[in-house]
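user: can you give me the structure for this one chain? C-alpha coordinates are fine.
assistant: on it. calling the predictor now.
[tool input]
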Amino acid sequence: MRYDVVIIGGGLAGLVAANFLGGCHRRILLLEREKRLGGRAKTDKVDQYYFNLGPHALYKKGKAKQILDELGVRIEGQSPDTGGILYDGRRRLQAPFSPKGILTTKLLNWRERMEWLKVILQLGKQKISDIGPVTYQDWVRNTTDNPKIQSILYTIGRLSTYCNAPELTDARVIVNQLQSAFKGVTYLDSGWQKMVDQLYEKAKSKGVVIQKGSFVKQIIPKDDHEFLLEVGNQQIFAEQVLYTGEPSKLNNLIDCINDDITPVKAAVLDVALNHLPKPKLTFAMSLEESYYYALHSKYAQLSEQSKGYVLHVMKYLHPEENNTTKQLKVELESFLDIVQPGWRQFLETSRFFPNLTVNQRLPEVCQNQSINDPETTVPNLFIAGDWASNESILSEASISTGKNAAQAMMNKWQVSL
Protein backbone atom coordinates (compact mmCIF):
# COMPACT_ATOMS: atom_id res chain seq x y z
CA MET A 1 0.00 0.00 0.00
CA ARG A 2 1.14 3.54 -0.74
CA TYR A 3 0.20 6.69 1.15
CA ASP A 4 1.17 10.32 0.92
CA VAL A 5 1.57 10.48 4.71
CA VAL A 6 1.83 7.85 7.42
CA ILE A 7 1.31 9.08 10.98
CA ILE A 8 2.77 6.84 13.67
CA GLY A 9 0.90 7.22 16.95
CA GLY A 10 -2.75 7.88 17.75
CA GLY A 11 -2.35 10.19 20.72
CA LEU A 12 -3.28 13.87 20.72
CA ALA A 13 -0.42 14.93 18.43
CA GLY A 14 -1.18 12.26 15.82
CA LEU A 15 -4.93 12.85 15.87
CA VAL A 16 -4.57 16.63 15.58
CA ALA A 17 -2.14 16.27 12.67
CA ALA A 18 -4.50 13.77 11.00
CA ASN A 19 -7.35 16.27 11.20
CA PHE A 20 -5.37 19.02 9.49
CA LEU A 21 -3.86 16.72 6.86
CA GLY A 22 -7.17 14.99 6.21
CA GLY A 23 -8.59 18.01 4.43
CA CYS A 24 -5.87 18.07 1.75
CA HIS A 25 -7.29 15.34 -0.51
CA ARG A 26 -4.25 13.14 0.07
CA ARG A 27 -3.96 9.53 1.19
CA ILE A 28 -3.35 9.67 4.95
CA LEU A 29 -2.80 6.63 7.19
CA LEU A 30 -2.61 6.74 10.99
CA LEU A 31 -1.08 3.74 12.77
CA GLU A 32 -1.64 3.11 16.49
CA ARG A 33 0.04 0.16 18.18
CA GLU A 34 -2.58 -0.09 20.96
CA LYS A 35 -6.18 -1.22 20.58
CA ARG A 36 -7.36 2.22 21.71
CA LEU A 37 -6.49 5.71 20.59
CA GLY A 38 -5.52 8.58 22.84
CA GLY A 39 -2.16 7.73 24.38
CA ARG A 40 -1.97 9.37 27.81
CA ALA A 41 -5.22 11.20 27.04
CA LYS A 42 -7.19 7.94 27.34
CA THR A 43 -9.90 7.70 29.98
CA ASP A 44 -10.82 4.39 31.63
CA LYS A 45 -14.26 3.64 33.01
CA VAL A 46 -13.78 1.77 36.29
CA ASP A 47 -16.89 0.73 38.24
CA GLN A 48 -19.01 3.62 36.91
CA TYR A 49 -16.21 6.15 37.46
CA TYR A 50 -14.15 7.90 34.79
CA PHE A 51 -10.42 7.86 35.48
CA ASN A 52 -7.92 9.79 33.41
CA LEU A 53 -4.31 8.63 33.68
CA GLY A 54 -3.77 10.84 36.69
CA PRO A 55 -4.90 14.47 36.96
CA HIS A 56 -5.52 16.27 33.66
CA ALA A 57 -6.42 19.92 33.05
CA LEU A 58 -6.80 21.89 29.83
CA TYR A 59 -5.61 25.51 29.77
CA LYS A 60 -8.58 27.74 28.94
CA LYS A 61 -6.48 30.27 27.01
CA GLY A 62 -3.65 28.01 25.83
CA LYS A 63 -2.62 27.15 22.29
CA ALA A 64 -4.13 23.68 22.63
CA LYS A 65 -7.61 25.06 23.34
CA GLN A 66 -7.34 27.44 20.36
CA ILE A 67 -6.43 24.56 18.05
CA LEU A 68 -9.22 22.35 19.39
CA ASP A 69 -11.67 25.21 18.80
CA GLU A 70 -10.32 25.54 15.26
CA LEU A 71 -11.05 21.86 14.68
CA GLY A 72 -14.55 22.14 16.14
CA VAL A 73 -13.87 19.95 19.19
CA ARG A 74 -16.38 20.63 21.97
CA ILE A 75 -14.95 21.05 25.46
CA GLU A 76 -17.40 20.41 28.30
CA GLY A 77 -16.50 20.88 31.94
CA GLN A 78 -15.83 23.53 34.55
CA SER A 79 -12.91 25.47 35.95
CA PRO A 80 -11.71 24.84 39.52
CA ASP A 81 -11.46 27.60 42.09
CA THR A 82 -8.08 29.29 42.47
CA GLY A 83 -7.94 28.70 46.21
CA GLY A 84 -6.68 25.68 48.10
CA ILE A 85 -4.46 24.52 50.92
CA LEU A 86 -0.69 24.28 51.24
CA TYR A 87 0.79 21.93 53.81
CA ASP A 88 4.02 22.96 55.48
CA GLY A 89 4.72 19.72 57.27
CA ARG A 90 1.48 19.18 59.22
CA ARG A 91 0.61 22.90 59.20
CA ARG A 92 -2.50 23.55 57.13
CA LEU A 93 -2.23 26.95 55.44
CA GLN A 94 -4.36 28.90 53.00
CA ALA A 95 -2.70 28.94 49.58
CA PRO A 96 -1.92 32.49 48.36
CA PHE A 97 -3.27 31.78 44.87
CA SER A 98 -6.32 34.07 44.99
CA PRO A 99 -6.89 37.61 46.33
CA LYS A 100 -8.57 36.14 49.41
CA GLY A 101 -5.75 33.65 49.86
CA ILE A 102 -3.10 36.37 49.67
CA LEU A 103 -4.93 38.43 52.30
CA THR A 104 -5.63 35.58 54.73
CA THR A 105 -2.72 33.15 54.41
CA LYS A 106 -0.59 32.63 57.51
CA LEU A 107 2.24 31.29 55.40
CA LEU A 108 3.44 34.84 54.69
CA ASN A 109 3.63 37.98 56.80
CA TRP A 110 2.35 41.30 55.42
CA ARG A 111 5.67 42.30 53.85
CA GLU A 112 6.02 38.86 52.25
CA ARG A 113 2.45 39.03 50.94
CA MET A 114 3.23 42.29 49.18
CA GLU A 115 6.39 40.81 47.70
CA TRP A 116 4.49 37.71 46.57
CA LEU A 117 1.85 39.87 44.90
CA LYS A 118 4.61 41.77 43.10
CA VAL A 119 6.18 38.48 41.95
CA ILE A 120 2.83 37.27 40.57
CA LEU A 121 2.31 40.50 38.63
CA GLN A 122 5.85 40.39 37.23
CA LEU A 123 5.49 36.74 36.27
CA GLY A 124 2.30 37.47 34.34
CA LYS A 125 4.08 40.19 32.32
CA GLN A 126 7.35 38.31 31.86
CA LYS A 127 8.49 38.04 28.24
CA ILE A 128 9.73 34.51 27.69
CA SER A 129 12.35 35.72 25.21
CA ASP A 130 13.90 37.90 27.93
CA ILE A 131 14.57 35.00 30.31
CA GLY A 132 17.43 33.33 28.47
CA PRO A 133 18.76 29.77 28.87
CA VAL A 134 18.65 29.41 32.66
CA THR A 135 17.25 26.75 34.95
CA TYR A 136 14.04 27.37 36.83
CA GLN A 137 16.01 27.17 40.07
CA ASP A 138 18.28 30.03 38.96
CA TRP A 139 15.30 32.03 37.72
CA VAL A 140 13.54 31.61 41.09
CA ARG A 141 16.66 32.67 42.99
CA ASN A 142 17.06 35.71 40.75
CA THR A 143 13.40 36.60 41.26
CA THR A 144 13.39 36.53 45.07
CA ASP A 145 15.69 35.68 47.95
CA ASN A 146 12.78 34.94 50.31
CA PRO A 147 12.78 31.18 51.10
CA LYS A 148 8.99 31.02 51.54
CA ILE A 149 8.27 32.68 48.20
CA GLN A 150 10.89 30.50 46.54
CA SER A 151 9.11 27.46 47.96
CA ILE A 152 5.77 28.65 46.55
CA LEU A 153 7.34 29.22 43.12
CA TYR A 154 8.80 25.71 43.12
CA THR A 155 5.39 24.32 44.12
CA ILE A 156 3.44 26.05 41.35
CA GLY A 157 6.21 25.15 38.91
CA ARG A 158 5.54 21.48 39.67
CA LEU A 159 1.81 22.08 39.42
CA SER A 160 1.98 23.57 35.93
CA THR A 161 4.52 21.18 34.39
CA TYR A 162 4.72 18.02 36.58
CA CYS A 163 8.51 18.59 36.57
CA ASN A 164 10.29 18.14 39.90
CA ALA A 165 13.84 19.03 38.89
CA PRO A 166 14.13 22.84 39.04
CA GLU A 167 17.92 22.55 38.94
CA LEU A 168 17.62 21.01 35.45
CA THR A 169 14.41 22.34 33.91
CA ASP A 170 14.42 25.25 31.47
CA ALA A 171 12.85 28.29 33.16
CA ARG A 172 11.32 29.45 29.88
CA VAL A 173 9.16 26.34 29.62
CA ILE A 174 7.91 26.54 33.22
CA VAL A 175 7.19 30.27 33.10
CA ASN A 176 5.36 29.82 29.80
CA GLN A 177 3.20 27.08 31.32
CA LEU A 178 2.58 29.17 34.45
CA GLN A 179 1.37 32.11 32.39
CA SER A 180 -1.15 29.84 30.68
CA ALA A 181 -2.20 28.29 33.99
CA PHE A 182 -2.86 31.70 35.53
CA LYS A 183 -5.59 32.24 32.93
CA GLY A 184 -7.52 29.22 34.19
CA VAL A 185 -7.95 25.53 33.44
CA THR A 186 -10.87 23.22 32.71
CA TYR A 187 -11.57 19.73 34.05
CA LEU A 188 -13.38 17.78 31.32
CA ASP A 189 -16.67 15.94 31.77
CA SER A 190 -16.27 12.15 31.34
CA GLY A 191 -12.51 12.66 31.14
CA TRP A 192 -10.34 13.40 28.13
CA GLN A 193 -11.68 10.43 26.17
CA LYS A 194 -14.50 12.61 24.82
CA MET A 195 -11.92 14.88 23.22
CA VAL A 196 -10.02 11.91 21.79
CA ASP A 197 -13.22 10.39 20.38
CA GLN A 198 -14.18 13.65 18.67
CA LEU A 199 -10.76 13.96 17.05
CA TYR A 200 -11.03 10.35 15.87
CA GLU A 201 -14.48 10.78 14.33
CA LYS A 202 -13.52 14.04 12.62
CA ALA A 203 -10.35 12.49 11.15
CA LYS A 204 -12.34 9.53 9.81
CA SER A 205 -14.89 11.86 8.23
CA LYS A 206 -12.02 13.56 6.36
CA GLY A 207 -10.92 10.28 4.83
CA VAL A 208 -8.02 9.44 7.13
CA VAL A 209 -7.43 5.68 7.34
CA ILE A 210 -6.88 4.64 10.97
CA GLN A 211 -5.45 1.26 11.92
CA LYS A 212 -5.30 0.23 15.57
CA GLY A 213 -3.14 -2.58 16.89
CA SER A 214 -0.50 -1.82 14.23
CA PHE A 215 3.09 -2.08 15.42
CA VAL A 216 5.76 -0.40 13.27
CA LYS A 217 8.92 -2.52 13.23
CA GLN A 218 11.12 -0.34 11.07
CA ILE A 219 11.25 2.84 8.98
CA ILE A 220 13.56 2.55 5.96
CA PRO A 221 14.35 5.60 3.80
CA LYS A 222 14.44 4.67 0.09
CA ASP A 223 16.53 6.23 -2.67
CA ASP A 224 13.45 7.50 -4.51
CA HIS A 225 12.56 9.92 -1.68
CA GLU A 226 10.01 7.73 0.05
CA PHE A 227 9.90 5.47 3.08
CA LEU A 228 9.25 1.78 3.50
CA LEU A 229 7.52 0.93 6.78
CA GLU A 230 7.42 -2.62 8.07
CA VAL A 231 4.15 -2.92 9.98
CA GLY A 232 3.51 -6.44 11.22
CA ASN A 233 3.43 -8.51 8.04
CA GLN A 234 2.65 -5.47 5.89
CA GLN A 235 4.94 -3.29 3.83
CA ILE A 236 3.69 0.28 3.53
CA PHE A 237 5.24 3.00 1.39
CA ALA A 238 4.92 6.69 2.24
CA GLU A 239 6.11 9.97 0.79
CA GLN A 240 6.23 11.54 4.26
CA VAL A 241 6.20 10.11 7.79
CA LEU A 242 5.12 11.81 11.01
CA TYR A 243 6.30 10.13 14.20
CA THR A 244 4.42 11.02 17.40
CA GLY A 245 5.35 8.11 19.68
CA GLU A 246 8.00 7.77 22.36
CA PRO A 247 11.29 9.46 21.38
CA SER A 248 13.38 6.59 22.75
CA LYS A 249 11.67 4.20 20.35
CA LEU A 250 12.15 6.46 17.34
CA ASN A 251 15.89 5.83 17.37
CA ASN A 252 15.16 2.10 17.32
CA LEU A 253 13.22 2.63 14.09
CA ILE A 254 15.53 5.16 12.46
CA ASP A 255 18.43 7.07 14.05
CA CYS A 256 17.60 10.79 14.00
CA ILE A 257 17.41 12.10 17.60
CA ASN A 258 20.80 12.90 19.09
CA ASP A 259 19.88 14.14 22.56
CA ASP A 260 19.63 12.05 25.70
CA ILE A 261 16.00 12.44 26.69
CA THR A 262 14.77 11.97 30.26
CA PRO A 263 11.02 11.42 30.79
CA VAL A 264 8.97 13.22 33.44
CA LYS A 265 7.52 10.72 35.93
CA ALA A 266 4.95 10.76 38.71
CA ALA A 267 3.45 8.33 41.20
CA VAL A 268 -0.34 8.56 40.91
CA LEU A 269 -3.23 7.31 43.03
CA ASP A 270 -6.67 7.62 41.40
CA VAL A 271 -9.49 7.24 43.94
CA ALA A 272 -13.30 7.07 43.83
CA LEU A 273 -15.28 7.56 47.06
CA ASN A 274 -19.00 7.41 47.85
CA HIS A 275 -18.61 10.05 50.57
CA LEU A 276 -16.11 12.82 51.15
CA PRO A 277 -14.96 13.43 54.75
CA LYS A 278 -13.97 17.04 53.94
CA PRO A 279 -16.10 18.09 50.95
CA LYS A 280 -14.89 21.70 50.97
CA LEU A 281 -11.25 20.73 50.51
CA THR A 282 -10.86 20.48 46.74
CA PHE A 283 -7.15 21.20 46.25
CA ALA A 284 -3.97 20.82 48.30
CA MET A 285 -0.22 20.59 47.80
CA SER A 286 2.76 20.06 50.06
CA LEU A 287 5.55 22.62 50.23
CA GLU A 288 8.17 20.30 51.71
CA GLU A 289 7.28 17.20 49.69
CA SER A 290 6.14 17.08 46.08
CA TYR A 291 2.58 15.92 46.85
CA TYR A 292 -0.60 16.98 45.05
CA TYR A 293 -4.29 16.40 45.78
CA ALA A 294 -7.34 17.55 43.79
CA LEU A 295 -11.04 16.69 43.75
CA HIS A 296 -11.71 16.78 40.01
CA SER A 297 -15.32 15.59 40.26
CA LYS A 298 -16.21 18.84 42.02
CA TYR A 299 -15.96 20.54 38.63
CA ALA A 300 -16.39 17.74 36.07
CA GLN A 301 -18.90 14.93 35.67
CA LEU A 302 -16.73 11.88 36.32
CA SER A 303 -19.25 9.42 37.71
CA GLU A 304 -22.54 7.89 36.64
CA GLN A 305 -23.60 8.00 40.28
CA SER A 306 -25.06 11.19 41.72
CA LYS A 307 -22.94 11.00 44.88
CA GLY A 308 -19.66 9.71 43.51
CA TYR A 309 -16.37 11.54 44.03
CA VAL A 310 -13.22 11.20 41.93
CA LEU A 311 -9.96 12.56 43.26
CA HIS A 312 -6.28 12.28 42.40
CA VAL A 313 -3.25 12.12 44.67
CA MET A 314 0.17 12.40 43.12
CA LYS A 315 3.86 12.71 43.87
CA TYR A 316 6.00 14.50 41.30
CA LEU A 317 9.11 12.34 40.97
CA HIS A 318 12.65 13.62 40.61
CA PRO A 319 14.56 11.92 37.74
CA GLU A 320 16.96 10.36 40.26
CA GLU A 321 14.27 9.29 42.74
CA ASN A 322 14.36 5.58 43.43
CA ASN A 323 11.60 4.76 45.91
CA THR A 324 9.95 1.36 45.94
CA THR A 325 6.41 0.84 44.69
CA LYS A 326 5.22 0.01 48.20
CA GLN A 327 6.87 3.08 49.69
CA LEU A 328 5.34 5.42 47.10
CA LYS A 329 1.85 4.02 47.65
CA VAL A 330 2.21 4.42 51.41
CA GLU A 331 3.32 8.04 50.91
CA LEU A 332 0.31 8.91 48.74
CA GLU A 333 -2.17 7.16 51.03
CA SER A 334 -0.62 8.92 54.03
CA PHE A 335 -1.02 12.31 52.36
CA LEU A 336 -4.64 11.46 51.58
CA ASP A 337 -5.07 10.53 55.26
CA ILE A 338 -4.10 14.11 56.10
CA VAL A 339 -6.26 15.73 53.43
CA GLN A 340 -9.32 13.46 53.69
CA PRO A 341 -9.08 11.60 57.03
CA GLY A 342 -11.13 8.40 57.12
CA TRP A 343 -11.34 8.12 53.33
CA ARG A 344 -10.72 4.35 53.34
CA GLN A 345 -14.16 3.52 54.78
CA PHE A 346 -15.80 5.27 51.81
CA LEU A 347 -13.62 3.73 49.12
CA GLU A 348 -15.41 2.56 45.97
CA THR A 349 -12.40 1.81 43.78
CA SER A 350 -8.85 2.99 43.20
CA ARG A 351 -5.78 2.34 41.10
CA PHE A 352 -2.11 3.13 41.56
CA PHE A 353 0.68 3.91 39.10
CA PRO A 354 4.08 4.00 40.82
CA ASN A 355 6.06 5.29 37.84
CA LEU A 356 3.72 6.90 35.32
CA THR A 357 5.28 8.81 32.43
CA VAL A 358 3.42 12.12 32.34
CA ASN A 359 5.63 13.75 29.70
CA GLN A 360 8.14 12.08 27.42
CA ARG A 361 10.87 14.69 27.92
CA LEU A 362 12.16 16.75 30.81
CA PRO A 363 12.83 20.14 29.15
CA GLU A 364 16.40 20.72 30.23
CA VAL A 365 18.41 23.87 29.53
CA CYS A 366 20.62 23.92 26.41
CA GLN A 367 19.25 20.62 25.17
CA ASN A 368 17.21 19.30 22.29
CA GLN A 369 18.64 21.26 19.38
CA SER A 370 17.67 18.33 17.16
CA ILE A 371 13.97 18.87 17.88
CA ASN A 372 13.73 22.58 17.16
CA ASP A 373 11.84 21.95 13.92
CA PRO A 374 9.04 19.56 12.94
CA GLU A 375 11.26 18.04 10.23
CA THR A 376 14.16 15.91 11.43
CA THR A 377 17.60 15.55 9.89
CA VAL A 378 16.08 12.78 7.77
CA PRO A 379 14.25 14.53 4.90
CA ASN A 380 10.45 14.11 4.97
CA LEU A 381 10.51 12.54 8.45
CA PHE A 382 8.66 14.75 10.92
CA ILE A 383 8.06 14.63 14.68
CA ALA A 384 5.35 15.84 17.05
CA GLY A 385 4.36 15.13 20.63
CA ASP A 386 4.69 16.39 24.18
CA TRP A 387 8.48 16.04 23.82
CA ALA A 388 8.85 17.78 20.45
CA SER A 389 8.67 21.40 21.60
CA ASN A 390 11.19 23.71 23.22
CA GLU A 391 8.44 26.09 24.36
CA SER A 392 5.87 23.92 26.15
CA ILE A 393 5.12 20.40 27.35
CA LEU A 394 2.14 18.15 28.15
CA SER A 395 -1.00 18.58 26.01
CA GLU A 396 0.03 22.11 25.05
CA ALA A 397 3.06 20.67 23.26
CA SER A 398 1.27 17.60 21.88
CA ILE A 399 -1.53 19.54 20.23
CA SER A 400 0.51 22.53 19.02
CA THR A 401 3.30 20.38 17.53
CA GLY A 402 0.68 18.19 15.86
CA LYS A 403 -0.60 21.24 14.01
CA ASN A 404 2.92 22.58 13.31
CA ALA A 405 4.04 19.26 11.84
CA ALA A 406 0.94 19.07 9.64
CA GLN A 407 1.65 22.56 8.29
CA ALA A 408 5.30 21.70 7.62
CA MET A 409 4.24 18.60 5.68
CA MET A 410 1.63 20.55 3.74
CA ASN A 411 4.28 23.11 2.82
CA LYS A 412 5.91 20.35 0.77
CA TRP A 413 2.71 20.30 -1.28
CA GLN A 414 2.51 24.11 -1.28
CA VAL A 415 -0.73 23.93 0.69
CA SER A 416 -1.50 26.07 3.74
CA LEU A 417 -3.88 25.54 6.65
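assistant: here you go. DSSP finds eleven helices and 19 strands in the chain. The chain has three domains: 2-41+54-59+191-259+367-416, 85-183, 264-359.
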